Amino acid sequence: MECFKKEGCCYSTVYRVIQRYVQFKVTTDLPRSGRPRKLNNKQMKSIAFTVNNNSGISHRILSRRYNVDHRTIGRNLKQRTHIRPRQRIKAPKYVKDQEKRAQKYSGFLYRHISNNCFIVMDGEKYFSLSGVDIPGNSLYYTSDRSSTPANINSIGQRMFTVIYIYKTNNAVTGDVYLKQCIQRRLIPFIKTNHLKTKFIFWPDLAKAHYTPQVLRVLEANSIPFVPKEKNPPNVPQVRPIEDLWGILKQMVYAQNYEAKNFDQLASRIRKKFEN
């Protein structure tokens, strides 16, 4: 033992190595059973299928589903699969021309609206089942970033006095906007609340909001509106209704909420809107 001490080896380490050699005729570590896994191969295959190329799925949601600690989910994904969390890339909000027009027409609009003039705004917000664009839900899991599809399954909605929820995979069409938002909601709202007051309607800059059919109906009902060429692009800071949508979306997806279907999501949106 003296020679090992001179080399700086601990006595107990040398003793264990000798014992291992006497018992197994080898000094290297042999395969052993160790702690049993809490997630079997079938469960891990299911978890990998659920999270791969997906977003808005938290470890805590999966941990409740499989009755394990949330850290177990993360550890097993890291050790037993090639799936890793990735940060979603944000699209740029402005191009230089948009920024200039936003500054110019925001000032123009507010300078020409008197203090006793009511501003009636429309707005829309897109909701997915999982709320992937909410801070905290911004990660997605994938085993290969290049194979991640751009899934777009969204629900558009607009609100005046009664919230309107519309299921779509694409942008809302002009016909839907005219019938559901202008004729069924805006015009009755104006007649009820602003018939004898000065007001101006400030629509969103979406293409459907300025179709010839929509403009004809607005003019026929004597509803003054911000013309498209004077409507500042992409400036949520000067549209208070955008704050409403932001607050509502945070409430809908609180605690990483994830809806299973459209009806469940619509019900939650209405409930949180009432709150």
Strand order within the widest beta sheet: 1-5-2
**Continuous helix count:** 10
H/E series, N to C? HHHEHHEHEEEEEHEHHH
Chain-averaged pLDDT: 78
Shape: elongated
Strand-helix topology:
Blueprint: H1 2-6, H2 11-24, H3 41-51, E1 54-55, H4 59-66, H5 70-80, E2 84-87, H6 96-111, E3 118-121, E4 124-127, E5 139-142, E6 154-159, E7 163-168, H7 174-193, E8 199-202, H8 212-220, H9 240-252, H10 262-274
Parallel strand pairs: 3-8
Antiparallel strand pairs: 1-5, 2-5, 4-6, 6-7
Helix pairs in contact: 4-5, 7-8, 9-10
Structure description:
By secondary structure, the chain is an alpha+beta fold. It has helices spanning 2-6, 11-24, 41-51, 59-66, 70-80, 96-111, 174-193, 212-220, 240-252, 262-274, and strands spanning 54-55, 84-87, 118-121, 124-127, 139-142, 154-159, 163-168, 199-202. The chain has two domains: 2-87, no CATH class; 96-274, Nucleotidyltransferase, domain 5 (2-Layer Sandwich). The chain has ten helices and eight strands. Helix 4 crosses helix 5, helix 7 runs parallel beside helix 8 and helix 9 crosses helix 10 (262-274). GO terms for molecular function: nucleic acid binding. InterPro entries: Homeodomain-like_sf, RNaseH_sf.
